[in-house]
Structures are given as structure tokens and as C-alpha cells.
Fold:
Amino acid sequence: MKNILLFALGFSILLFTSCNGDDDETPPKQNPPAGYIVPDTYIFTDAEGNNTVNFSGQTDRLDQLAEITSLMKSANTPGTAINAQNLKDMFANVGENGNGNFSFSSTKQLRNKCASQYSNAEEVRLEFEAMMDNLAAISQTTVAGEANGSNGVAGIVQTADGGPYLMNANGQEYNQLITKGLMGAVFYHQMTGYYLTDEKIGDAVDNSTPTDPGAGKYYTAMEHHWDEAFGYFTDAVGFPTEGTDRFWGEYSNTVDPQLGSNKKLMDAFLTGRAAISHDDMVTKNQQRDIILHEMERVVAAAAIHYMNKAKDAFANDAKRNHYLSEGTGFINSLRYKPNATITPIEINSIQADLGDNFYEVTVAKILSVRDQLSDKFGMNDIKNDL
Amino acid sequence: MNAYISLRKHLGLMVVVLLLVSCDSDDSGGDSSGNFDRKSMLTNIADNVIVPAYDSLSATTQTLLAQTQELNFGSSADKVENLRISWKHALKQWQYAALYDFGPASDQGLLSFFNLFPVSTTHIEDNIASGNYNLETAANIDAIGLQAMDYLLFGIESDAADLANYFSENPGYINYLIENATLMNNKATATLQGWTSGYRDSFVNATGTDIGSSLGQLVNVGIQYFEVHLRDAKIGIPAGARSSSGTPLPLQVEAYYNGAVSKEMLVNGIEGWQNMFNGNSRTGEQGSGLDDYLKFLGTTFNGNPLHEGINERMENAKTQTLNLSSDLREAVVNQQNECMDIFSELQQSVVLLKVDMTSAMGIQITYVDNDGD
Structure:
């Protein structure tokens, strides 16, 4: 009886594996944990039933970036100028409410977490702020009711079914470069380069002492750090039933048909967290590796996805430039996982191949970028479908 | 014991079900289709419709290239006349090849490079005057392809001898014609090679109905082409159906400078689409197509077979086009109502294709742009 069950199970697993043509060559191994239950949603409690999950600081930062993006997008309406200082105050969360520009108060900020694990962090932050300056400057040139942007002229670019988008003279959309770039330099970077490192969730990190039960902090240090990594992926405990509407949750969902990333990531976050609570360090480390591997694949696949969209919209200035800006932001994001599959020099080279001027791009250049990425990440068999 | 046997049966069933579910996308059967042979249909469409269309296109662009290069050895009225005839022939071949904008064609950007209109004559003139242009860049998309040739061959001088003289005195135009023909020929040839060196095999073997399947692509890309490049570009926009004022826009007509082939190209474009739909070769041989699949599924519309309804709409549109008393450049102004009727027939075809056909086949329309950010 038991044998038959095992046989049936084994057979079905084999089938799934053999039919799963879109997988990469060496996925980290996922062993189901023994002796404890992995929940379906990101809800964990201690033996007394106290909630042990808290990632409110991450949710605050997702909300902050959402409001920054919303302000930047307002400049897509012709005749709407925005102020660079407001964007920078929001980035650094001046006065705990972005100097009055956020709809809520928080002690958290994006700026000090931006590329924080890299020695050139300040340089990266200044680059983002320089883009905010540029965005604000070109927003001053737009005129209500006019699409004044074109090759060589910064302004609003709009076509019959694309835009309006505020773009610089090279057709780059700062909103996309900044938003997608910060998803990489803050969220992805903090997740992969900080919280999922040995320093924060390694076997030596405290996993037995509740942090501060008196203050409602029933979690151990290791549990909390894992939760903070999760919070940078999504704020939805029921992902992917919910939480597919913004940031990494959204883009995992975009590439999910080809990658199966929604389930891979959510299962890994859930299993790893359950493992930590049951002191199963082997499983925790396996799940960490799965997340690091799969998150990078999501970023690369999102970049490939937008290269395809740019190619398909090649004749449409607004759409093509928008998709190239979005894709460039994701390519840039690939820099922010330490020990990445792709080196900074390779990323520079790919970006140079695409060129700075999105009006002067060719189909061949777009496909070259796509194909270099798909080669690098083992996605040649799915690159056309992404 | 009975429970044991029963459980064993269920486990067996479960394994089979798992097999079907997990492999459905590569399966040539498929749940709703019973045993319609989709591979035969795809094979016929690939071998007798698509590849011959690219073969013809590649051959005509080869001719265009050779004939534009000939102008370098002295232009003459005869050479100009020959080039004009070849241009029309190439434009006609394009109507049968345009709709397969996936795989090799998509990788070449064929739809963007070959026949977008209207072109910008100032942009073309600026390029020729400066002599400094890369026709492959996105920035030149309104200055290339068969419609740039329309302007260069018909928009400067109508008399062939006058145009031949003009070219002799202004060799920049000849260079531009050659560069443009080279671009088209490279792309048409690369697309044909893509199909004959591997893509054809993967196409006929992707027999599912899911998003990445060949049928999924044919239907999605085909209907999108029908909406944007047939219904809207060829008749809807010039007839004023897409502008709030409703004013005809004759400058938006295909081959505006030629002024005599747009009716024919609209008819050819519809026929090109029907060839895919009906699995027909250019010489009229009938093979397995989407119509046979609909016939097999028994899909009806208003009590009649759906595939007949679709063909009837398209036949109506062709007949009404041929019945217009002048070319579209004049007809959109002088017979605007008749042009709107043609647009309406095409619009009703779209509804049948996009709603009734796709739901019968279980194909998801994926090209609706939902990139909200």
C-alpha cells in the first residue's frame, strides 16, 4: 500500500520533471522538510500562538517607492512640472514623511539602504539623485496638450496607442530607470546582499531567543531577518493569490508562465521560514539558495521580456522607448546581488551594445542584448516566449 | 481488499491525469479538439502557405535590389519603368507574407521595416540630402521600405524619362534606393532562411493551443495584424473611421504617390489572410487550415458554420473594394460611405475571429497591451 503510494508519487514527480522543458540546467535541489508543516501563507506563530512575523519596515519602503513613482509619473501628463527636491526628500525620507511629500510617516528610508552593501553606495545614490534632477528639469519643458518630445528633444512622447511618457532627448524614461533601478539597488540588494547572507540568517545567528516579547517581538533574530527578506519581495502573505500588483511580486508574476517563479519563490520563503522555526538549518540553507537563484532569474527574465516587447513595438517611439527604459532598469538591477551570475563589466558591455539613444537603436541591437542575457542565464529555450 | 483495489484504480487514474495535465502543452491531441490533426494543419500552412510567401517576397526584393543597382550604370526610362513594375510586384508579395509576424519575421522586425505608411517625405529628403543615415535605426522607420519607394518612384516625377534624368542628376537618390532595397532584401532573405533552416520544424511540432504554441501565435499575431494593418491602416484610418472628426485622410492611403494600386493591395491583403485561414496555396490548392479546424469543432454562428461566416465577410469586403469606382486615394473622399462599409465588414470579421473562433479553439488572446506602468 505504502509502496504503491510512493510509486505513484515518484512517477508523477518524474512526469512533472520530464515535461518541464523551460527549466534551467542546474536548479538548486529542493527537499521537502520532514517532521513539520509548511503553511500555505506567510503566517507563523510561536508555541503560544503569538504572531512572529513582522516586515513593516519593508512594507514602508515599498509604499515609499510607490509614492515616489506616482509623483514621477505625474510628469507624464503634458504641462506638469515636478520638483527634484521633493523626490530627493522622499528618497531620504526627510522629517520621517519625505518633508511632507509622503502620505504617511515612517522612520525608514530608501536612501540609506540603497546599494548599502557596496563600497560605492554613495556614488550609486548620487546617480539616482542625478536622474531625479534630470527628470525634474525636463518636466519643466512640457506644455499642456502637446507631445513635444522626439529624437534629440526631451519632452512628452506619445503615439496613437503609446504614452504619454516623459523622456529625455535620447528617449530614456527616467521614471522607469529610477523605479526599476531602485527595485534592484534597494529591494533586491537588501534581500540578496544583506538579509539572506550568513551574517543575518547563517547557522550561527541567534535562533532561540525571542527578541523582545514585552514589546510584541516574539521572533528570533534569524526568523526576523528571513521575514525582512520576504518583505522586500512582497508585502502579501498570500502571494501569489495576492501581491502580484507591484514591484518584485508583479514582475515574478509577469515571467511566471515561463519560469514558474511565483511558486518556486513563495514555496522557498515558506519552507525556509518553517525550517528556521524548527531549527532545520539544512533545509533553511537550501531554500536560501533557491531564493537567491530564482530572484536573479526573475530579474534577468524581466529584462528579456522587455527587450521582446521593445522589439515588437519597434516602430512605436513611445512604446519602444518605454520598454527599453524598463528593460534597462532591470538590467541595471542585476548589479545588486553580490556574486551575481553576470559581472558588472558584462552588464556595462551589454548596455553599451544597446546604446544610449533609444531612437537610434536597431532590431539587431535589441536582440543582441536579449540573446546575451538568455545565454548568460540559460534561458535560450524560453527567450522567445518571455 | 475492495477498498484496496479501488484505491489502486484511483491511483492509476491519478497518474494518467497527471500525465495529461503536465504534458498538455506539447500534446498533439488536446482536450477540446478530440483528434483533429493540428500537426497536419500546421505543416500545410508552413509548407504551402508561409514558406512560399517568404520565398516570393525574397525573390522580389532580390529583383528590386538588382534593378536599383542597375541605375548606377546609367538610369533610363526603361529601367525606371521596370523598377516601378517590380515595386508593385514586391508590394503584392508583401500582402501575402505580412501577417506571420512571429519567429524569424519578428526577429527581423519585418512588419516595421517593409510597409508602414504614411512615410515622411521630408525625412526621406533630409536623409538623401545629408547622405548620412542608418536605415536600420528606429529613427528612420518613417523613411524606409516599400512606401519610401512609392514616394521615390512616383512622388517626384510621374514621367519615367523625367525621373530617370532626375536620378542621373541626383545620384543620392539612387544610393538611397539601393540602401533601402538592400535592407528589405536582407531581412526577407534572413526570414526565409530562418524558416527553412529549423524554424519550420519547431513550428509544425508546437501543436498545442497554449500561449507559446504555433496555433496560439498564428491566431494572436494574425488577428492583431488584421486589426492594425488591414482593417485600420488600409481602409479605416484613411476613410476617417479612426479620427474624431470623421474626415477622410487620403494622405494615409497605402501607396499614395502611386495612387492606383491601393484597392488591389487591400484585396490582396484580405486574400493573404484567407490563405492562412483556409490553408490555401497561392495557386489555389486547398489544404488543411483554421477553417477545417472550425469545421471539425462544429462551431456555428447564427446557425451557420462559423468558418463560412468568416469567409463570407471577407469576400464581401473584397467585392465591395473592387466595386469602388476609383482607387482608395479618391474613394475615401468621394465614396466615403462605401469605404466605411468595407471597414465595417472587416470589423465584423474581427469579432468573429477574435471572439467566436478563439473561444471555439480554446486560444487565449494575449496581445492586449496591459503594461500599466
Chain B touches chain A at residues 4, 7-8, 11, 14-15, 18-19, 22-23, 26, 103, 106-109, 111-112, 116, 134, 136-139, 141, 211-212, 369, 371, 373 (CB under 8 Å). The beta strands of chain B are 300-301, 304-305. Chain B is about 65% helix and 0% strand. The longest strand of chain B covers residues 300-301.
